[in-house]
Amino acid sequence: MPDNVLEVTGLHRTYGTVRAVEDVSFTLREGGSLGIVGESGSGKTTTARIIVGLERADVGEVLVHGRDRTGRSRGRAQRLARARAVQMVFQDPYLSLDPRTSVEAVLRETLRLHFPGTDHPRRVRELLDQVGLGTRAADALPRQLSGGQRQRVAIARALAVEPSVLVLDEAVAALDVSVQAQILNLLADIREQTAIGYLFITHDLGVVRCVTDDVIVMRAGRIVEAGPTAAVLAAPEHPYTRLLLESVPRPGWDPDRIAAARRALR
Length: 266
Ligand SMILES: Nc1ncnc2c1ncn2[C@@H]1O[C@H](COP(=O)(O)OP(=O)(O)O)[C@@H](O)[C@H]1O
Ligand SMILES: [Mg+2]
Prior knowledge:
- The chain has 2 domains: 4-235, P-loop containing nucleotide triphosphate hydrolases (Rossmann fold); 237-266, no CATH class.
- Helices cover 41% and strands 24% of the residues.
- It has 11 helices and 10 strands.
- The chain binds adenosine-5'-diphosphate and magnesium ion.
């Protein structure tokens, strides 16, 4: 059995009177893929930000490879160590990429920070290749790339660090459906090659079905259901999960009935 790379226990986070995250616990095994699904405002991003150290928990514990990573990292060494364990890819790479820095320079900067004294040009070529960007993209600035290409750059930058866990927060939500499929395939290939673990955060059950082994369903800060993805999607036990599944538009779909069911759930 692979070890757990990530163990999250009893996370709580409130903002004023808003209980953003309430008693959230889960584990991710090495090389595994866990989905967190739920509607907007259910606490997914707050959970992710606590795990990568961008946000602190009021209560609870985050262990990465058995080491306590709860709370914000202090000092350069701690920040680097944590970054090597967990990397995050956001919905909009535009916001996380410097508009004046070329693709190659972005990757070199990251490599210099984490692996000083190694052969960076070779590693840059490897990374570009791994995310399906040709060497021609190396000199490009973010604005010269498509949305899908930019997300590939963000993924390459995360992989440069060789993390154990990649947290992807709505990482394909802003992309066209066909580009979405390309990026999801790419992520599946990368997982096979590297045994990197994914924490895949999305409001989209189709995405969960594609790329996760297990899933947790969050509603208003709490986990309402958890289990193997195939089982949860085939036979959801919680009414909220059923509602999420029924909310996916398809032939014969009745939004009024869904809205009524949603009101009844409150
Ligand atoms: N920095 C913050 N300040 C105040 N409220 C916040 C902050 N971050 C998140 N929240 C609130 O916490 C709840 C959960 O938000 P979030 O974790 O972003 O959910 P999701 O990612 O599932 O959409 C929401 O009600 C949101 O408004
Ligand atoms: Mg979010």
